Amino acid sequence: MKPQPTMASLQQVVDIAIDAGKEILAVYAGEFEVERKGDGSPLTAADRRADALIHARLQRLAPHIPRLSEESALQPFAQRRAWRRFWLIDPLDGTKGFVQRNGEFTVNIALLEANRPVLGVVYAPLTGVAYYAAAAIGAFKREAKPPPTPIRVKKFNLDKAIMVVSRAHVGAAVAAYRARLAREVAQLEIAHMGSSMKICLVAEGSADVYPRLGPTSEWDTAAAQCILESAGGRLTTVGGQPLQYNKANILNPWFVAGGDPEFAWHQFAQGLESAADTDAAQPPGDPLINEPLSD
After folding, report:
1. Which of 150, 182, 211 is the C-terminal boundary of a domain?
2. CA dist., res. 256 & res. 59, Å (int)
3. Which one, of 5, 257, 239, 216, lies nearest residue 118 by Cα?
4. pTM summary value
């Protein structure tokens, strides 16, 4: 694989993601067991099969580039810190959606250079939709059948904002973010989505912002961040700084994925850490936190 991603090498990674998706769908079509990892998150045969395929194919494509995956052993930071380039993989992002059979799960593959994502692929196996991008090439969306189309974030105005949120992780901090944004716009619509597709919706201009004010890991965001940034958007911490990768601790801080880069989307998340502490105290059905929102 050449030092800088090309359209040809990007397409090769898209093909790997598509084939990993076939492994996932083979499991999805039947009955499967659900295990629990140490952190309580689900694990299935689909995670393992997709992970094995991705590792094998990337090894053939670029044997000299190390790989870091959610479903593989985490290499010691003393070893990882010397990596100049590496693959960051989530073979099945949205395993909860997979288990619930809602279709909102993806294959995420990113290439990082100097700890920044320079190539990203997000593939939704059930719909056959692929989002992919590389630095200096651009961002694209391919439906179940080619050809792909370039994607771009949309220009924001104060008339209307579309905010996408997680189906599984809507808490007090997100509700407070929504309230702050609602005071700035004439109309605010909310959409629910699972997996890294939320960031891709911002990248293609279907949504304006996705605040993730809760825990994620580096493999959850790298591929989609590359796609968003290549489409003209920004993914930053609540302080407005880009996410950092290949850290000693692979957990991400809170972040906001915004479309129009001229609007400071992160500003509405500042100072909300205390709101997160109230989540456990809120009863089920609390109108602020668990209000049904349109998809």
Report:
1. 150
2. 33
3. 5
4. 0.91
